Every structure is written in structure tokens, then in C-alpha cells.
Request: fold
Amino acid sequence: MFKALKDKKSFLVTRNLVVAEIGYYLVFMALALSMDWGNAYLEFPISKYLSFTVIEFTTLAVFQILLIVNVITRSIKEEQDIKEVIRRGEHERLEFKTSLRWDVNKNQVNKDLERSAMKTITAFLNSEGGSLILGLDDNGKVHGIESDCASLVRNTHDGFENHFNNLFVSMIGPEFRQHVKLSFHNISDKNISLIEVAPAHRPAYLKTDKGEDFFIRTGNATTSLKVSQVSPYISSQWHR
Reply:
């Protein structure tokens, strides 16, 4: 059921390798066509003992190995980075939530959880930015987002991201989506979602049934401002 999510890391590594290989081959072909390297090589004494073909394929193999090592190393570093972020715990610019929509206590979908996630994102947009990690409890214990995915019609990575996008557009607005990056990571054989939020170019409001609410980050908490507080805050945040 969750094969697409579980294979996400392998897919990204493979994709990066393919892109790197294509780039390398384009450069290699450009160099090969730019001049007759074979004849140029014959001018060197070593050509009497080692053919140009051996040199050519050895060079190609070495660069391929270096590409593979580089891509895999970067992928491992990304996972180490996310683990380090989790280890530091919640703070002003980082918050954990057990799920996006699945209530683990009631064992059912809870729309209030979706609103809570969007509230945090809105607060980051209105402050100095930050990151929200879905699939972790307040203590950093990994629960994963598998239950969230299972509750969706499309229980895949794409289905999860599509649902997130729909929530974001309806509750915050499409113009702010450019400030938000969503990615998936596998920790302890469970999948979590990292949502990185950059500061917005203008005030962001969370739409509600009664109107709109304005949120900011105060320490490691999300705070709703009163109507009388919003205007002074906007002036200090965007009109400095």
C-alpha cells in the first residue's frame, strides 16, 4: 500500500544518479567531439604501452564511480541532517505534529488537525519562517504519516502532497504556496513529511468559517493576534 512512499528515497537517489550521468555524458561527448583526442594522445610516450581506448574507458569508469559516490553521500547527508533537526527538538522555528489529519486517539480523520497544521504554517509565514514536521510527536518520537496516507483516496506520496496543496490553497491561499517546500524522509522505517516555510512577502491569514485569523510565532508557540494587535504587527514586520 505504501510502496511509493517507502521507495521514495531510492527513487530520489536513482533520479539524481540518472541526471548526473546524463550531464556527465553530455560533457564527455562535447569534449570528445571538440578535437581528435586519439591522435593527440599518440604524441605522448605512454601511448606505446597503453592504448587510448583503455585510457578513455578507465576515465569514464572513474568519473562514474565518483558520481555515484557523490550522489549517495549527499543522500546520506540529507538523512543525517533531518535526524539532527529532530534531535534538537521543537523551538521557535520548528514544530512537530503527529499527523496531518489522522487522530491517533480517536482513530479517525480529524479536520481540526488539518487546521492546526495550516495554523502553524501561517504563523511561520507571518514570522521569520520555520519548519513543520508531520509524523512526530512533541517528544520527537516517530509515528509516521502512513495513517494519514491510508485515509486518502490516493494513499501515495503524490496523494498526500495533493491533499496538502488543496488544504493550503483553500485555507491560506495559492499566492503563498511559493514560500513552502514539502519533502518526504524515511526515519526508522517510517515516513515523515518536512514542510519548510519561508517568510511571506505580505501578511497571510488563515481562513475560517467565521472569517480570517492572524497567527504569529511567539517562542515555540503559535499565537493568534487580536484585531487591535494585527495592524501594529504588520507595520513592524513588513513596513520597516
Notes: The radius of gyration is 25 Å.
